[in-house]
Design goal:
523 residues; Hypothetical protein af1432; 3 domains; four-stranded antiparallel β-sheet; 21 helices; 6 strands; 5% strand
Length: 523
């Protein structure tokens, strides 16, 4: 799980703020008499680094890691500058190992590790500041020490969660999730910190042999527990999450793929899905002459994959690892669903092309009935698209613009017939069988609006007029005028009414388009 490491938002500013807060928190460094400082440094360094690097996540998202135990222990017993420096190094290196272990992107490793180190150091100093004034009193009683150790862990975990939340701030509505994660992730370290209770009790009046033995035993026990928790959670997640993931995704798979526009997108998503679900070395999907492999650039070195092929030719090839498990029934269902979607996509593409041919035939008839030159609407559509490209419109927006241009003559026809636009061209398929995108309908409907607000049907002005309408107004006027006069005269006519009837920016784009070698588009 990459929640702890991925998506680092540590900027230079936030990093500087955290450093200033660390320096601002007044901590009294306290040498421990009779305690071998270097032995303590080594023990805590090993335990801290190991528990950070081996941390794991429950499937519902909260971390299972015992490193806050060492924050709580140091806050109760006290520490020196050397121990604090060792804490920083161990926290940083432990997170580096963790991010590498989970396959984090290389560019995220250093920022995520630095952020983690600063946050844990700040929470350590803040917890120490809260408890340091009553440290002697706490260590005077075994029960007080036990309660304080648990409390220090709870404070550390809470500060860790809150500080990460503030660095990644996305709104207070997410603070409830932070509290839920805190309540869950504090349970394990809050309980197992008691294994360091004997070592904590010995720090007040240490006996070297007893203290060292207690510390080593406590740290070793915590390392064993962290290993067991991580292995147990990883194994449970690999089996439970994979099964649950496949069941959930199989139910949604057809719906997800149906929303796609091309077979290439469907194959790419299919390859990524099986790569995540079955945890192989690589996955390749092939449909007709199209093939995708995930991860990109994988070289099988002559290894033969496990292969499943559908009735329509969709092939799924998997290069397994020791953890890869493929359920034959689920694979076959998945392939069948995907083949159905791929065939639907091809059918939809065929219907779309046929629809455009019918649309162009209808527009050709409209051109002739309006006594204009043959191909008039096609010319307007081509010019409108060039203007749209210059204005930075997306592919989808350009498609809407082209469709509106091909149908823009219906604005005048329907206006004369006094038809209701929403009844004739409705975006609601339950009201009509002739469905158009809403943006196309709006673009045609507001074609006769004027930039200064004096037009029809609603008197819109400026940017309130749909961009499609503003582009079509310029393109259609230019084509109509250039049919019986020079291009220069048509442009002068547009410029004369720029700011009144037409959008000045679009007029400028049209002027650039008509100049130089690009004038052949309107010839």
């Amino acid at each position: 799980m990459r929640e702890a490491a991925g998506g680092s938002r540590l900027t230079l500013f936030t990093g500087a703020v955290v450093v200033l807060l660390i320096l601002w928190v007044p901590v009294a460094y306290q040498p421990l008499p009779g305690v071998n400082e270097y032995f303590m440094l080594l023990s805590l360094w090993v335990g801290l680094m190991y528990t950070i690097s081996m941390q794991s996540f429950r499937t519902i998202g909260y971390p299972v890691t015992l490193f806050p135990i060492f924050q709580g222990y140091m806050a109760i017993t006290g520490y020196t500058i050397l121990l604090e420096t060792g804490f920083m190094i161990a926290a940083f290196l432990g997170m580096v190992v963790y991010t590498i272990r989970i396959g984090e992107e290389s560019r995220e490793i250093i920022p995520a590790s630095t952020r983690f180190m600063l946050v844990t150091l700040l929470s350590l100093r803040a917890t120490t500041f809260i408890l340091q004034s009553s440290r002697s009193w706490i260590l005077s009683s075994q029960y007080l020490t036990a309660a304080a150790l648990v409390g220090a862990v709870f404070i550390s975990v809470f500060l860790n969660q809150v500080l990460h939340f503030l660095i990644e701030y996305r709104g207070m509505h997410l603070f409830g999730q932070v509290l839920k994660k805190y309540s869950r992730s504090a349970v394990y370290p809050g309980f197992f910190v008691l294994f360091l209770l004997p070592a904590a009790m010995q720090t007040k009046v240490p006996s070297s042999n007893v203290w060292e033995w207690n510390l080593v035993t406590g740290v070793a026990t915590i390392i064993i527990i962290q290993t067991g928790l991580s292995l147990m959670l990883d194994r449970a997640r690999f089996s439970h999450s994979r099964t649950r993931f496949l069941e959930n995704e199989l139910g949604k798979h057809s719906e997800i793929l149906t929303d796609l526009d091309t077979s290439i997108e469907a194959l790419r998503i299919l390859a990524r899905f099986w790569f995540q679900a079955s945890e192989p070395e690589a996955v390749r999907v092939t449909w007709k002459n199209i093939s995708f492999i995930c991860p990109t650039g994988y070289d099988p070195h002559g290894r033969a994959p496990l292969r499943r092929e559908g009735e329509e030719g969709l092939a799924l090839e998997v290069w397994p690892t020791s953890r890869t498990t493929l359920d034959r029934d689920r694979v076959e269902i998945f392939i069948l669903q995907t083949e159905t979607v791929l065939k639907n996509l091809e059918l939809r593409d065929t219907v779309f092309k046929s629809g455009w041919k019918c649309l162009e035939a209808m527009v050709y008839s409209l051109d002739k009935s309006d006594s204009r030159q043959t191909g008039y609407s096609r010319i307007v559509a081509d010019i409108a698209k060039e203007i749209g490209i210059r204005l930075g419109m997306s592919t989808g927006e350009l498609e809407d613009l082209e469709m509106a241009a091909m149908l823009h003559l219906t604005a005048a026809i329907l206006e004369k017939a006094k038809e209701d636009w929403q009844e004739v061209f409705s975006a609601d398929p339950s009201r009509t069988q002739f469905q158009l995108p809403p943006e196309v309908v709006r673009g045609i409907r507001h074609l006769t609006e004027n930039y200064d607000g004096t037009g029809k049907p609603e008197g819109l002005s400026g940017a309130a007029i749909p961009l499609i309408s503003r582009i079509l107004a310029v393109a259609s006027n230019f084509v109509a005028n250039s049919s019986n006069q020079s291009l220069e005269s048509a442009i002068l006519e547009l410029k004369r009414r720029s700011g009144l009837i037409f959008d000045p920016d679009i007029v400028s784009a049209m002027e650039e388009l008509s100049s130089g070698t690009e004038s052949n588009i309107v010839s």
